[in-house]
Amino acid sequence: METKMVRSISEFNNELKLQGFKAFQIDDDSNATRLYSRKDFFKICLTTGKSKIHYADKSFEQEGTILFFGNPHIPYSWETISTTYIGYTCLFSEHFLKQSERIESLQQSPFFKIGGTPILKISEDQRLFLNTLFQKMIEEQESDYTYKDELIRNYINLIIHEALKLQPSEVYTSSRNGKARIASVFLELLERQFPIETPSSPLKMKTAQDYAQNLNIHVNYLNRAVKEITGRSTTNLITQRILTEAKALLQHTDWNISEVASALGFEYTTYFNNFFKKLTGTNPKSVRDSKV
Predict the structure, then answer these.
(1) The domain 176-289 belongs to what CATH superfamily?
(2) Is 195 exposed, middle or buried (0-12, 13-18, 19+ CB in 10 A)?
(3) Which residues contact 74 (CB under 8 A, 6 or more apart)?
(4) Which end of the chain has the smaller Cβ count within 10 Å, N or C?
(5) Would you place residue 130 in the very low, low, confident or very high pLDDT band (cuts 50, 70, 90)?
(6) For residue 134, how many C-alpha atoms fall within 13 Å in the half-sphere facing its CB?
(7) How many whole angstroms separate alpha carbon 268 and alpha carbon 40?
C-alpha cells in the first residue's frame, strides 16, 4: 500500500509538471497535493469544512464553503479543523495560463495580490455552480479533445470572473505578533527563490525593497521587523542566501561563471566577482577550480 502511494504521488507530480495543470477532488488526492512544488503553481480551491488559513501576515478561520486563491509567490499554510473536508482543487502553472495571455491581469486581481483577500464565502447555489466547473475541468483533462487546454483555461477564467462578483471575506485576525509574522513570511519568500534550477530562470528579488514591494509593505517596516525578530538585517540575510546559492552553483553545476552570475541576478560578471570576493576573500573561479 505504501509503495502504491509513493508511485501515485510521483505520477501526480510528473503529470503536473509536464502538463502545467491538474484538477481533482480533494478527498481523492489529498496526500499527493501536500507534496507538489507550491512555488511553481497557482491554486484555486473550493472546499467545505472548517479550516484556518494563514496567508502572508493574516489568518482566516472559516467554516462552511469557501473559494481560496493561492499565489505561488505568497507564502500560505492551511490547517484543517473539521474531521470531514470535501471539495475540489485545481493547480496551474504560470506558463499554462500565459498561453492565453491573461496571466498579467490574473496576478493583479484582488485574489492573487498579497494585499488582497484570497478567500470568498460561497452560498449553496454558488457551490453547486462552481462544482460543475471543477467537474468539467476534471473531465476535460482526461479527454482526447485537441483544444482541451484552451477550454480548461476558459473554465479557470470563468471561476475567477464568478469570484469577482462576490464579496471577499474580511473575517481575519492579525497575528499575535505582526513583526514575527512579517519576518516569517520574508524568510519563506527568500527561501522559495532557491534552488535556482536553470540559468534562464534568474533570481527575481534581490533587495529588501524588492521583498517589501512583493509583501505590499514599506521597506522600513520590513527592515525593522526582520531585525527585531532575527537580529540580522534584511540585506544581510538576502546577501548570505545568495552567497550560499552561488557556492552551490559553482560546485555542483557545469554552468560557466557568467551563467551563474546571470542566474543570481547580476547584470555583469564583474559585479558578481566583486560581490563574491568581498564576502569570501576569494574569487568564483577558485571555487570552481577546486571542485572535485
Answers:
(1) Homeodomain-like (1.10.10.60)
(2) exposed
(3) 55, 56, 112, 114, 189, 214
(4) C
(5) very high
(6) 22
(7) 27
Assigned CATH for 2-173: 2.60.120
**CATH 2.60.120 residue ranges in the chain?**
2-173
Pull the grid cell for residue 173.
485576525
Whether the full predicted model's pTM is greater than 0.85, yes or no, is no
Q: Where are the beta strands (DSSP E) in the chain?
A: 21-25, 41-55, 58-70, 76-80, 86-93, 119-121, 173-174
Task: Locate 274 and state its grid cell.
Answer: 566583486
What is the location of CATH 1.10.10.60 in the chain? 176-289
The pLDDT value recorded for residue 77 is: 75
Cell of 43: 491554486
Query: CA 188 to CA 87: how far, in whole Å?
Result: 28
To which residue does cell 479533445 refer?
Answer: 145
200 CB neighbour count, 10 Å cutoff: 8
Query: Average pLDDT, stretch 13-30?
Result: 70
Mean pLDDT check: name the lowest of 16-20, 22-26, 66-70, 193-197.
Answer: 16-20
**Cis previous bond, 195, omega within 30:** yes
pLDDT mean across residues, the chain? 80
